[in-house]
Design goal:
The structure is a homodimer. Chain A is an alpha/beta fold and about 270 residues long. Chain A is about 50% helix and about 10% strand. A five-stranded parallel β-sheet of chain A has the order 3-2-1-4-5, sandwiched between helices. In chain A, helix 5 packs parallel to helix 8. At the A-B interface, helix 3, helix 5 and strand 5 of A face helix 3, helix 5 and strand 5 of B.
Chain lengths: ~270, ~270
């Protein structure tokens, strides 16, 4: 891993001794000695900060371009980075950029008028945000706890992600059929409907949840099968928005896919 | 575009007047007036710098996750950013990270021993680097000039990308069949072979270039057709390395694909 660099920086730290050993050759007046290590510490910490940011940005690229094998937790070194990204402007700006691209594309498509042009949306981290849950669970640095997460889902309190709500309304307005295709269980249908409605998602053509027989399947397989069914029913899948590559890849892929950012978890 | 923010920052700049108008309410002794705007200018420029970095990083994410419609030039605001990325550590670290992931995966695969396990490599910006050419052509900020680029290719001077050479040797050593699948023309076969050999790529099972009838095809179509042929010949495509999504998506997709970084150009 590229984090060896960071570890080396950490292990070779012992800041004070380093600062003083550097100064031993030149006997400086007292006040300067007191000032110098402080500046050095600040610089070193900045450097470390920059290095962590650099490595974690690189890691995030590897995630978003689907280059990693299935992973269960974010790197420990990147917890603060992911927190800053999710809570700061980074996530919002990236999300908006992808949603805007999707909107431009949606408007550019010539719909056939036969009611068979479809757009698929995933739900979690696509339409609805579970960030309030992940704030309480280390931003992806804890092993996923399905019981605790289901408890959160049962509350039906996940807020809308604004740029998705905007895209959703545009896509509906343009006359696309809207399919919601989620990894959530069929048992969570009513709370999901309630949550969607309360968050402002008030209309869809089909809400597809995992039936009992789908639970053992990989998301990629389950979602591909559901897209295959849409194609068999004569739909053309023109757009697909999801935060996981397993929302987008597989068979019966969409004409254009939109990968929304999510550095917190990975679903194969 | 998210660059509106940057434009606003630019247009609302008029730094000096801003600094002075801010000071008008408090009459300060002369030397302080001279110092204050300078600090302010420095801070503002830093801020602008940070903002450009922020927006261009976001743009790069959109590129690498394949969320943009075909684009012909990098955003003008990002020329310096892309230059810094390509010439600095960023590109190298990102490239190494993806190649390392590919290597870990390659070693984890159980080969069948029937000689039908294949790995595909693209050539340009995957095995060989055209960075010397793009350094002279604005790092993707100029419209692609096929005549000038072909002249560069004819020199046969493109250097190896080190992490790819390492992966290449690992993959060969593990017993994969190696297919090189490039958008270069069949006419460039001999110079391509020479360039590859000189750069250290000395063995492959098949080098596939565009024949006359392939020239009008999109890269995605051409590369999918070639992968289809491999599958028809009984190969299992287990790995695929490329810097363009058109190297990786389409039909007969690889079991695992590795998207190498390339913020300089896009091939549909």
């Amino acid at each position: 891993m590229g984090f060896i660099g960071i570890l080396l920086l950490f292990s070779s730290f012992s800041l004070i001794s380093l600062a003083f050993s550097h100064d031993n050759a030149h006997v400086l007046p007292r006040p300067l000695i007191h000032q110098y290590p402080e500046t050095l510490i600040a610089n070193r910490l900045n450097e470390l900060d920059e290095e962590v940011k650099f490595q974690c940005t690189s890691w995030r690229f590897t995630v978003e371009a689907n280059n990693l094998s299935p992973w269960k937790m974010i790197p420990r070194e990147c917890v603060e980075y992911v927190k800053d990204y999710m809570m700061g402007r980074g996530y919002r700006i990236d999300f908006e950029r992808v949603s805007n691209e999707a909107g431009v594309y949606a408007k550019s498509v010539q719909l056939s008028g036969d009611g068979k042009d479809a757009w698929i949306f995933d739900i979690d981290e696509t339409l609805l945000s579970n960030l309030p849950y992940y704030q309480e669970h280390g931003y992806g640095s804890e092993i996923f706890d399905p019981v605790a997460f289901d408890k959160w889902v049962e509350k039906g309190m996940a807020p809308a992600i604004d740029p998705s709500l905007k895209l959703y309304e545009e896509v509906l307005g343009l006359g696309f059929k809207v399919f919601l295709l989620t990894g959530r269980s069929e048992k969570q249908r009513s709370v999901t409907v309630e949550n969607l409605m309360n968050a402002g998602f008030r209309y869809w053509d089909k809400l597809i949840l995992r039936a009992a027989e789908d639970h053992a399947k990989l998301a990629t397989t389950y979602k591909s099968e559901k897209r295959n069914e849409m194609i068999e029913e004569g739909y053309r899948i023109l757009g697909n928005s999801g935060d996981q590559w397993s929302d987008l890849l597989g068979s019966s892929m969409s004409n254009r896919s939109f990968k929304l950012p999510n550095p917190m978890y990975y679903i194969p």
